[in-house]
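**User:** Everyone, produce a chain:

**Assistant:**
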Amino acid sequence: MRAFTSQPRDSVAALGETRLIESIRRWLGSASPPAPFGIGDDCAVLPANRRRQLVTTDPVIHGRHFDDSVPARAVGAKLLKRNLSDLAAMGARPTAAVVSLALDRRVSVRWLEQFHRGLAAAARRFSVPIVGGDVSQSDGFLGAFLTLFGEAAGPRIVLRSGARAGDWIYVTGTLGGSLLGHHWRFIPRLAEGEWLARRVEVRALMDVSDGLAKDLLALTPQGTRPAIAPAAVPISAAARRRARDTGRTPLHHALADGEDYELAVVVGRRAGRAAFERAWRRRFPRLRLTCLGRFVSTDKIPAGSVDLSRFKGYEHLR
């Protein structure tokens, strides 16, 4: 379904702002509570909470995060899920979200309806009330921007900064080839992140969204480098298919494609790894957890380790 229409009667301009907001409220249905805890006032009211609060924001932009080959419902779900992945990376759970739209006058009403119905379905699935937002006009641009509120799911939140020399590096799932569909079909690792945050062995977490080669830099302690054997990287079938089309190696796609939305996990060097891995398999028997290697001093990189500097990952504004 095309996001833009050449028929004025089918566009958001034919509705106008007031009727569009009324339609959005109807499309979201039970995913948006009644005012003052939802759409209808200048601000939404969030219930008081004694847990530590978290907030994150991410957009989906036509031509950047999706195109007309991605179903509109999937675009709405992706908007929420990519924000949920950020909460998962800190062991948190969602509490509420607000969505702002920047719409060219030619955006299709039918596309926008399906977008909101996909957003609403994902919101109900992950228990996230959509409590408000905004609509503004843009020229030649379509983007949706979601701000997600969350709370600590347990006694601590896990940061990126906890890794130390000698710590072990793990990753969930498989990596690479997201362009073939995973970038909108993924499931945010909320349950896994909450479980990991409760494990004393876990020192640091982050979600893998820009490519593991780049994202690992944010976890790497000063004076160390990740020592990863190429054979240890869990390469997806999609990455292997992409490699056949691009001429690059499957490893390149696994490390640099981005939008994997898996979790990179740092486990303390003195942890009982065998017990930790057994506990993972009992709790998440269908999701792979792979030990990639460990952080070592820069002058002690084992021969044959992956040179991550050769894999750029995704970087905005470059």
